Amino acid sequence: MKKLLKIAMAGLLLLPAHSCEKVDVVGVSPEEPPLPLPMPDTALYISAVKVPPDYDWRRDSAAGGAGCELILYRNMKPVAVYPTGADACISTDPDTHHIIDGRLYTEFATDSQTIIKRDGEEVLRYPGREFLVGLLPSGNSIYTLGRLRGGGGYMLRKNGTLILEMEDCCVFGSFNASSYGTTGALYIDGGHSYFCYREPDGRCFKVRDGVPYPVKVPSSASEVYDVKVHDGKEYLFYGAGLGTSHVKTPSKTIGLGNYSWVAAGMCFDQGDICIMGFRIPHKILNVVFGGEPESVCQILGGEVKKFSSGADFIYCREKEIYAVCSRAGGLIVDDGDGPLLDIPLAYCFSRDCAVITDAGLCMGVTPRGGGRPYVILEGEDYPLDINGFISSLGFCIKY
Fold first, then answer.
1. Residue 224 is assigned to a structural domain of this protein
2. Do strands 253-255 and 245-248 pair parallel, antiparallel, or not at all (unpaired)?
3. SS3 of 307-347
4. Is residue 44 part of a domain?
5. Mean pLDDT by 10-residue block, N- to C-terminus, for the chain (399 residues)?
6. What per-residue confidence (pLDDT) applies to 302?
7. Backbone angles phi and psi of 18, in degrees to 5
8. Domain tally for the chain?
9. What is the pLDDT of residue 308?
């Protein structure tokens, strides 16, 4: 947090308490003093599950009913504690914890309903046992994109009311997809809510404010990896014949070489298109298990970062790129030039357990063998004084 504090302090203007000297500011009337520039409120949020001291959360023999607590931290200090379990309608599952704009959202499924809470208070309750792939607060509304836990199609809801149901489709993005953000498959562009999906016959659609619109797919496309709307325009990432891949922008089609892709998508960083995922050279496509996919982050028109250790999750923000990989029971952090950290016997439970801040990659680490979970920031370890695990992180800048 040192760098974050330095950034905040650098903008402070200290004025004397009393002054007898009149100072004129160019362009500003002496009677109207200039307004101070807004200072950013920069905060790191952490959610963690605290379990009783003598309870082994790794076995979880009580199936989440051991009297656990969900704690929200702000800049390493606890600011809220919530009970968990069926009575509280808050799960200990890290995949159900989402920090969005400094607020902690939780999802919970009963035998017949889905319940969404924000900072411990219920905000949505609707029929059906859904798990979410997207959650988007927008003004006074909350959009959710969920799928029934027993299988089936996807449901888009606004404030709990079903506005669109899709059967037998593939939604692009989720909370664990590297090329999507903290709101999962749902996102805002130009003041509108969006997500995109592909049907079994290859047709693709963008959904704006709950209304689906067809997206034109090139006739040469054999597989569509991702579709996104950015600045009101459609972008397609797709594979064609002979193992080639391309990105179709509003003005041109960009070739990515003779590769096919797995678990891949695109994101936008300071005007650049970034492709991240596993790519496979086409020369091995016809050989079953004929080679290892490369884990990469490719900036179109720029460099290609390859992660020799593989990558469970890839992070890209303001030209900083990192990958987190689980290997041999531990974690490896790689920036594309080689491993930066090798952490033995540790968990990073989800993509939301790491985030790029102004001080670099920040990661929530939970030891496999027990012991206190901790946050790594700027090469320093910051332990949380609990028996339990870190479930998510969030980095928030507000003016």
1. yes
2. antiparallel
3. CCCCCCEEEEECCEEEEEEEECCEEEEECCCCEEEEECCEE
4. no
5. 34 30 35 53 92 79 73 96 96 96 96 97 97 96 94 93 94 96 97 97 97 97 97 97 90 92 94 94 54 85 87 92 92 93 94 92 93 92 95 86
6. 85
7. -135, 145
8. 1
9. 81
CA dihedral 86, 89, 92, 95 (to 10 degrees): 130
The dihedral through the CA atoms of 205, 139, 364, 336 has a sign that is: positive
For residue 285, give the nearest of 242, 247, 246 by alpha carbon: 242
User: CA torsion sign, 52 to 54 to 56 to 61?
Assistant: negative
Q: For 48-79, give one letter per residue: b (16+ CB within 10 A) or e.
A: bbbbeeebebeeeeeebebebbbbbbeeeebe
Is 26 strand, coil or helix?
A: coil
Domain that holds residue 243: 216-306
> Which two structure tokens, joined as six digits, stand for 128?
């059906």
Nearest CA-CA partner of 256 in 244, 271, 267: 244
Closest by CA to 353, choosing from 329, 324, 378, 330, is 324
Picking from 190, 182, 143, the residue whose alpha carbon sits closest to that of residue 162 is: 143
- Amino acid letter, residue 213: Y
Tokens (6 digits) for 192: 């509108």
The dihedral over CA atoms of 187, 193, 197, 199, expressed in degrees to the nearest 10, equals 170
The answer to whether 30 and 57 have CB atoms below 8 angstroms apart is: no
CB contact at 8 A, 359 and 375: no
233 in a domain, yes or no?
yes
147 occurs within a structural domain: no
Decide if 349 contacts 390 (C-beta within 8 A): yes
Q: For residues 393 and 382, is the Cβ–Cβ distance under 8 A?
A: no
How many angstroms separate the CA atoms of 195 and 147, rounded?
14
Best CA proximity match to 138, nearest among 94, 90, 103 = 103
- Lookup: tokens for 361: 């990659």
Helix (H) or strand (E) holding 7: helix 2-10
Model pTM score: 0.87
Distances in Å between the alpha carbon of 260 and those of 178, 241, 254, 369, 391? Answer: 17, 10, 14, 39, 33
* Listed residue (173, 149, 174) closest to 91, CA to CA: 149
